[in-house]
Each structure stands twice: as C-alpha cells, then as structure tokens.
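Methods — Computational structure assignment.
A single polypeptide chain was analysed. Its primary sequence is given first, followed by the predicted tertiary structure written as structure tokens.
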Amino acid sequence: MNRAAVLSEALPYIRQFSKKTIVVKYGGAAMTDEKLKDAVISDIVLLSLASIRVAVVHGGGPEINELLSKTGKVPKFIDGLRYTDEETMDIVQMVLAGKIGKDLAALVHKHGGKAVSFCGVDGAMLTAKKMQGKADYGLVGEITHVDPSLINVALDNGYIPIISTIAAGDASMYNINADTAAGEIAAALGAEKLILLTDVAGILTDPSDEKTLVGKIALSEVPLYIKSGAVSGGMIPKIECCVNTIRRGVKSAHILDGRRPHSLLEEMLTDGGVGTMII
C-alpha cells in the first residue's frame, strides 16, 4: 500500500513535467560516493523514461585534484575558483570531457537509459571569454553565448545529454564554473527547472540545524536571507545562479542535498519535496 501511495502521489507530477526540460547540475559527494552516484543516475533515468527531458551538467573537482596530485601539481584556488594554467586546462579537459563524461554515460546505459557525452566545445555549445576579476584566474572563462542545438537534438531523440563545462574561446578553451554553466544552459533551453545537487540540505535559517530547512523562497526574499546570514559563503554564488536563471525565464530553481539517496525524485515527484525551491 505504501508503494501504491508513492506511485499515486508521483503521477500528477509525471503528467505535469512530461515533455518539459529540466537541467540537473551534478556534483559534490553524489559524484564521489558510488552508492549515491548509482542512486542519482537511476533517478535521472527514471525521469527520462517518464518522458521528462533531463540534461545533466557535471563538475569533477575531486577527480581533477587527484590527477593534478599524481602529476606533482598542487591545486590552486583564488576566490573559490580553480586557477587554470595551460597544464591544468589539459587535465581539466581529460577528466571532465574524457573520463567523467564517459563514465556517467556508461552508468546511464547500465540503468537502461540512453546518454551521450558532450563538452561545451562540441557544436560551439558554450562560447566564453577570459574571466576578468580582482585577480588573474588563468584560463577560467565566463560564458558569452550558449547554442543549445546539440542538446536539443539529443533530447528530441530520447538521449540524456551529459555536459562537461569546457567552453571555446577566441584564443583557447576555458574552464567554466559548473553551477554557472548549468544556469546558462537551463536559460538557453527554456527549461522548466534548474536543480543544483550540493552537499547541504538546502537553505537553512540556522546553518547548524537541518530542521530549519526553508522549503520555498521567492526571488524578493533572497536578499533578506543573505542579509540574515542564512545564505553565506559558497551558498551565495549558488543562490545567485538560481536567481539569474529564474530572471531569464526558468520557472523554478532547486538546491538539493545530493548526499541524500533519491533526493531528486523526492523533490520532483512528491508533495513535500526535500530541498529549497526558489520561484
């Protein structure tokens, strides 16, 4: 009876989101823990088989750090961004567009779905320029244009596009922040939802107590949460990414705990949800 109730609760949401596009930014612990990875990918395949168009944008920081260490290179971060010289860019490209993208596509196939792995350079999907800021970040870029044609071809033919965040520029390729890229891609696709899988439960009024999770926030309320300190540190760029995406037409953005198995299905297909939704 419990299983029947779950399916009954999910049905209206499956109907509501059928043929709609969602973009999932996949990163954090959910990428490094094998059981969590299996749960996330099985959720994505289930949504796809329910006729929901799912595009996945992935990071890969720990794997990049691991390969850098093997080559004797120490990872360097400035203002939370990975300093990317030419040697680091080669490793970023190998890890993201090579190993991680293909591993995720293989895992989708294992769970009965169809996937194709792209990087932002393919089909001129992501175009970028060198990021300008308080410091020199090396080959870190900011997106100037998104061409979603290749993503739509994959989605139209029943494939789950797995996208690594490397962009083409005039002089070289650029490393792009995965949250930012996911937001830009969601806007370009006219997506229904942007979902960021993170290592926190969502926005908490008391960061030390997960029982203070805020289920829903309107755009107008975001500055209040930043001012109160409920949104701080690394959560600020994530919430700003959500805000920018909604202002460009995406209906809602969600911050979910990727450490919680099947949080994606709980947020998408149940009445209660489990993360923070910004509308």
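Note: Residues 84 and 138 are 5 Å apart (CA to CA).
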